[in-house]
Every structure is written in C-alpha cells, then in structure tokens.
Amino acid sequence: MEYLWGGIQGAAVLIIGLDSEVFRTVLLSLRISLTATLIASLVGIPLGFLISTHEFPLKRPTITFFNTLLSLPTVVVGLFLYSLLSRRGPLGPLSLLFTPTAMVIGQFILATPIIVALTIAAIQAMDPRAKITAMTLGAGPFRTALTVLSEARFALTAAVIAGFGRVIAEVGTAMMVGGNIRGYTRIMTTAIALETAKGEFAFALSLGFILLFVAFSINILFHYLQAKRG
Amino acid sequence: MNKKKYVIVMVLALCILSFASFVSARERLKLSTTTSTENSGLLYELLPPFEKQFKVKVDVISVGTGKALKLGENGDADVVLVHARELEDKFVADGFGVNRRDVMHNDFVIIGPTTDPAGIGKTKTAAEALKRIAKQKSPFVSRGDKSGTHNKELSLWKEAQVTPLGSWYIESGRGMGEVLIMAHEKRAYTLTDRGTYLAFQKEGKITLPVLFEGDPTLFNPYGIIAVNPDRQPSVNYVMAMALIGWVTSPGGQKIIAEYGKGKYGAPLFYPDAIKSPK
Questions:
Q1: CB contact under 8 A, A199 and B174
Q2: Domains and CATH numbers, chain B
Q3: pLDDT at B1
Q4: CA distance B128 to chain A (A)
Q5: Cβ atoms of A49 and A119 closer than 8 Å
Q6: Pairwise CB contact (< 8 Å): A93 & B234
Q7: To 10 degrees, the CA torsion angle through B107, B260, B78, A167?
Q8: pTM for the complete prediction?
Q9: Which of A30, A38, A88, B65 has minimal CB crowding within 10 Å?
C-alpha cells in the first residue's frame, strides 16, 4: 500500500518540479510514439480505405491478415527488426540499431495493422450511399475518398487513438531495438522496466502514473479536435 | 481545399522535423556492459568526465555478459565492459575483440535467509555450499541469462558435481537487481556480485545477509575490450581505445576506487589497472 501512495506522491513531485530527466523521457516517448502513429495513419488510413472500397481476389484473407496482426507480440516485432538492423543483418550498414529511428520503425509496424483494421471496419460500417452520392454529384475518385473518410472521421479518430495507445504503452520493441540508452533511447516504458529491475518501485510507479497522465492528456486533445471538427 | 493542403504540408513538415532532430551531430560510442555495472550506478560517475574531455556521447547498453559480448561480435557495440574471464579470452582469441585490459574487481557472495536452512555458513568452499543447498532442496534463484554471474554459478555447480534441477531451482532469466529482489521475496539463496548486493542492501531494498564469502574462486574481475576493427570496420575504434585509456588511467581508476565509499560505507569495486590511484 505504501508503494502506491508513495508512487502517487512521487509522480506529483516529479511533474510539479519538472524533473529534467523525467521531462526529457516523457518528451522522447511522445516524439517517438506520435511520429510512429502519424506515419502509421498516413499509410494505414488510405490502405484501409482502398481495401474496404475495392473488390479484389483475396480480399477476405487480406482483412483476416490485418486482423491477425492486431495480436502481433511486441517482442516478436522487436526481434524481427533487431535481426534486420544488426550489423550482421541486411540493413546493418544503415547504423539504425539502438537509435530512436529504429524505435519509430518498430512502433510503426505495431500501429499500422490496428489503424488499417479499424479503418476497414469503420468504412464497412458506413452507409454506402455516401460514396454513391458523392460520385453522382460529380466528385472524382480523390474527392469521393475525402468525402467518405470525412463521414467516417469519428471512427477514424478512434482508430488513430487505438494505434497511439498501443505504441505509447509498449515496451518490448522499444527495449530490443532502442537498447534503453539513458538520454537517447530511454522512454517511459523502458525506464519503468529499468527502475523496477533496480528495485526502485516507488519511482517506477511514479513514472507509471506520469505515463497514464500523459496518455490521458493526449486523448483529451484528440477528443477535443474530433468534437471541434464534428 | 487549400486549408486541407496546408494542414497536410504542416503535418509532413512536423514529421520530417521530428525525424531530423533524432540525428545528432555529436560523436557517439556504444558501450555494451553488464547489468551489474549499470545497476550499481558506477557508470554515471565514471563516464561523464570522459564524455566531456573527448566530446563524445557514450551510449550504454546494459545486458548480461553473454549478450554484451554478442553485441560486440556483431559489431553492434564498439567496446565491451564485462566480467567472465573465460568468455572474454575466447572473444579475443576468436578475433572479435582486441586490447583487453583489466579494469577492476569485486567478489561474488552467496546470500540467503537469515535462518540459513541449508547451513552454508559453516562450509569451506563455495561448491560445498551449493551442494548443501541442493541436498536440502532450499530455494535458489539463478540468473539463468548467460550473464557473467550466471556463468560463475554454472561453473560452481560443475565443481560441486550437482546438476541443479527441480522446483527449488528457480531460473529467472532476469538481471542482477531483479534476482536480488526475487530472492528476498521468496526467502531464497542466490549468488550475487558484492557491488550490486551492497547497493541494494544499504538502501533497504533487501534484507538477506551474506552467508558465504571469501572463497578465492569467487573472485570477480571486470575487463574492457575494444571490438576488432579488422572484423567490424564500422566500429568507432579510436574512441573505444580512448575509453579504455580513460577507465585504466589514474583519473578513471580513482573514481572506481572511491565509488560507493560515501554512500554505502565501502567501495563497490577495487581498481586493477592501477592499484593505488592518486
């Protein structure tokens, strides 16, 4: 019990006191996860749109494939990426292992299937007349796509939030391809893992509360944007 | 429509900017090392003066000794600081590393519940102590992660001619700190380096006492090795050698000798490159 209370108090002290190391760790977490979510959205939403609005052979298996990727274990992504990025791997010359960029790539791989799958679900659940109406009103394919996506914006925002939620909370990939280097690739989740390993439970808990607080603020921001545009 | 284009351009610019900011101009050196050196906090004192003097950022990747050497072998680290002499010699003999230097030592101790149910306090050798633990089937937490400590433990079991097997033998696969906590929670025995043990015990994270110590086989030396640039041309060899120079210099050795004296009442490591650094 004292751990919990100490954790809450510690979190408050760290937030109010703007502890510079914690602050930088939070910032790095956000930068990596937001970048990954952004790229995943730029890839995932159009991809989900194309899959759900076009008929092609193997459409069902493709959707099943993306749904399966939702349960991709983070350590498997980490391991896979690690073997690609290691000096011994095919992408070794890029010198990306143990860099924030490697972590962005890993989180991108984790977030994209979620955004694709939820985009497909969102567009399939829509009234198909939106697309037909837009087309009869003379809209081109790009304009039609924008109309359809704009109609589905609530569900799409939810897809992006789900993608972000997955990556801001994950530790496996970040630990393996980031290496948890202090001041360089140490993010909230890997810092929590390290502090737990060092037996600093109260400090680890404080970081946990800060992570929750940050995720909460980001979600509020997303919802605010959604409401404003809606 | 224009507004939308503007938003898209802004988003892309932001994306590129955040990527660009990851690329830092400062020279970097990747040091793979063991969890015991990082968990003890020594590196936070030892590295900053070096980073300042040589204008380099040292990226510390702390894993078990086995993995630390593997990172060097694959060229994913520039220099390794580990503690498993046989593995280190093999690493150098196989051509993966060059210029190994002794850095420091401490020793391993066996800790366990105050009641000492296996009675290892009265034994003469570490192997005999382990034999008793196995015979009593007293819980024993093993690192089980191919670290230097794990290697030492395995060689002791071999010496004791016991194959540890059964529900009493807990293969955790965790770092030193986690294993200490686990042993504390489970009231189990474990083998630990004295440095990490002292750091945890003095801060009240664990209460288990040292039950066996002093056997010469429990000597725990640390070595630093540069990754062979002939094998891995991409490594930062010059800076790796500069770091080896720093940790074995009077300045570096003095930091090692002093570390922990104030906080824990005893040094956590003893310098080996220069015995009494001024």
A1: no
A2: 26-106+221-271 (3.40.190.10), 108-218 (3.40.190.10)
A3: 47
A4: 30
A5: yes
A6: yes
A7: 110
A8: 0.81
A9: A88
Provide the token pair at B226: 């540069």
Instruction: Please give, rounded to a whole number of angstroms, the shortest distance from the CA of A63 to a CA of chain B.
Output: 28
ipTM over 0.85: no
- Which tokens sit at A111? 């977030």
Dist. CA B196–CA B176, nearest whole Å: 7
Among A118-132, B47-61, B79-93, B138-152, the minimum mean pLDDT is found in A118-132
| Distance, CA of B212 to CA of B98 (rounded, Å) | 36
pLDDT band at B254 (very low <50, low <70, confident <90, very high): very high
With a cut of 70, say whether residue B227 has pLDDT above it: yes
All structural domains of chain A:
2-209 (1.10.3720.10)
Q: Do A196 and B178 touch (CB under 8 A)?
A: yes
Higher pLDDT, B131 or B276: B131
